[in-house]
Design a protein that fits this description.
Length: about 500
């Protein structure tokens, strides 16, 4: 019996030994595959020589931007004439400060205050290009006025920066584009390709009266655009873990927008005699909202996000490079980490945001109706119809005894088509960034907010959302927030970018 036990132990030892050896072989093989996969991915960055940038009077440009900031062009969704005098003030300022540009450009006022500038090219067979920006700004959050280092509409230039609402979003781009055209006109530049500048006046409230009407006007004239570039993604530093270089993300698509209003009816009554558990209007609405919040639409590293990470992977350091180069293995782990952050989660899925809930008006009365609004930002691939069906399914499953009404609020839009990264226009933007910002990594990205450029998709197949505004993590809260500003040095970079881009896209 003792000998038999020894034999069994020896056999078990050999089995365990072989198992451990097999595991070791698998791990070594896996490590080898991961290593090879990591280092075989060469850089996708364009190798272009740096160029001598055009001379720019930074102080004058900063003064012009500061003057534009002083026009309080806050837009309204309901009152098209709100701040009409301020928009006219901005229009007069543009005409006065850019005489050479206005000598070569045709200016049309579209709708109430939107501006369409056109510089006719010599070759009508070439499709026009369009640079976009918007004149309007968001209001100052009540109670925060005293938190600004400089008053938000004083247009102060101090410490090498232009301070004020719109300095970044989006008068910085508008003024930079006008400065670039002024320089080109002064140099005697003659475009072969027509150039459009489209400056909406209601982007912050949807762009229905501005950019949308500009697009309709050009469509009625039979125009199709070669490419469009609008505000959007930025040059970030220190935002992406594992990436020590600045990253210029060019938005090749933007998410759609959908707000759904839910109404659920139940029998009203006295609070002393409530209905069975879960059958009040508030209970059924709560169950529906919890289901929508719990059962989020699926996330995944695919589409634009996948191309972005694949492009960035060879530029990463440490484990970030290993993980991004081997999404087949580390994808689930990486996805979980990305989903934990609001900004990165938004790149991976159609997001669900519970924004408004209303029910009841007296503490001892059961309301006969509860209402809620849920906002979705649609990932390319999802549609308004599919997301609406998702909400309907949730309502029926969570509150089968409820009398539900479902409606779509105005302002919805489908996710934009994805503009190709292999196109000549994307490669031109890519090349221009690499020329003027040496060492900056360029990759495609997804715009999670909405821009005026979405109105141009009917007349353009190539729509991009990017401006070379530099931003570190601490700068991001300034967007639509307190102490909005841009450095004079960065403003000069924007001017040089648009000057170079137009020169190459529309020149001989």
């Amino acid at each position: 019996m003792h000998a038999s036990f020894k034999r069994r132990r020896a056999t078990a030892g050999r089995v365990v030994g072989r198992l451990l050896l097999a595991i070791a072989v698998i791990l070594v093989g896996l490590a080898a595959v991961v290593g090879v996969n990591t280092w075989r991915h060469d850089s996708r960055q364009l190798d272009v020589p740096a160029v001598t940038p055009v001379a720019v009077d930074g102080a004058a440009a900063a003064a012009h931007l500061a003057e534009a900031v002083r026009a309080r062009t806050v837009s309204s969704a309901t009152d098209a004439q709100l701040n009409a005098d301020q928009f006219r003030q901005l229009h007069a300022m543009l005409e006065a400060r850019y005489p050479k540009a206005h000598a070569v450009l045709q200016r049309e006022q579209v709708g109430d205050f939107a501006l369409l500038y056109t510089w006719k090219g010599a070759d009508p067979s070439l499709k026009p290009i369009m640079l976009m920006a918007h004149q309007d700004v968001v209001p100052i959050a009540p109670g925060t006025e005293g938190d600004w280092t400089q008053p938000p509409f004083d247009g102060v230039v101090k410490d090498g920066m232009v301070w004020g609402r719109g300095a970044w979003d989006d008068k910085g781009n508008l003024i930079s584009q006008m400065e670039a055209i002024e320089l080109l006109a002064a140099s005697g530049f003659k475009p072969r390709r027509t150039i459009h500048l489209a400056f909406g006046a209601d982007e912050e409230v949807g762009g229905e009266r501005g950019a949308k009407q500009i697009a309709a006007l050009l469509k009625s004239r039979g125009e199709r655009l070669d490419f469009v570039i609008d505000e959007g993604l930025l040059i970030t530093e220190g935002v992406l873990p594992g990436l020590t270089k600045p990253a210029a993300l060019i938005g090749v698509a933007e998410k759609g927008f959908l707000s759904v209003q839910l109404k659920v009816g139940a029998t009203p009554g006295h609070s002393s005699m409530p209905p069975p558990q879960g059958q009040s209007a508030i209970a059924m609405m709560s169950a529906t909202l919890k289901r929508l919040d719990d059962d989020q639409l699926p996330a995944g590293i695919r589409g634009v996000a996948q191309e972005m990470f694949t492009t960035l992977a060879p530029e990463m350091q440490g484990f970030s490079r290993v993980a991004l180069s081997n999404l087949w293995l580390f994808g689930p782990l990486l996805q979980k980490q990305l989903e934990a952050s609001g900004s990165s989660n938004a790149m991976l899925r159609t997001t669900t945001a519970l924004t408004i809930v209303q029910a009841g008006n007296k503490d001892n009365v059961l309301p006969g109706r509860a209402e809620a609004t849920v906002n979705f930002r649609l990932l390319p691939g999802d549609t308004i119809a599919s997301v609406t069906a998702h909400v309907e399914d949730a309502a029926k499953a969570a509150a089968p005894k409820g009398k539900f009404e479902l409606s779509r609020l105005p302002g919805s839009s489908e996710a934009s088509p994805v503009s190709p990264t292999q196109s000549a226009s994307y490669q031109l933007i890519n090349k221009t960034v690499r020329e003027l910002f040496p060492g900056t990594v360029v990759a495609p990205g997804l715009m999670i907010g909405a821009t005026d450029s979405r109105h141009m998709i009917e007349i353009a197949d190539h729509v991009y959302r990017f401006s070379p505004v530099r931003a570190k993590p601490e700068d991001l809260p300034r967007f639509h927030g307190t102490n909005e500003r841009i450095t004079e040095a960065n403003l000069v970079e924007l001017i040089r970018f648009y000057h170079r881009l137009v020169q190459q896209a529309a020149g001989a």
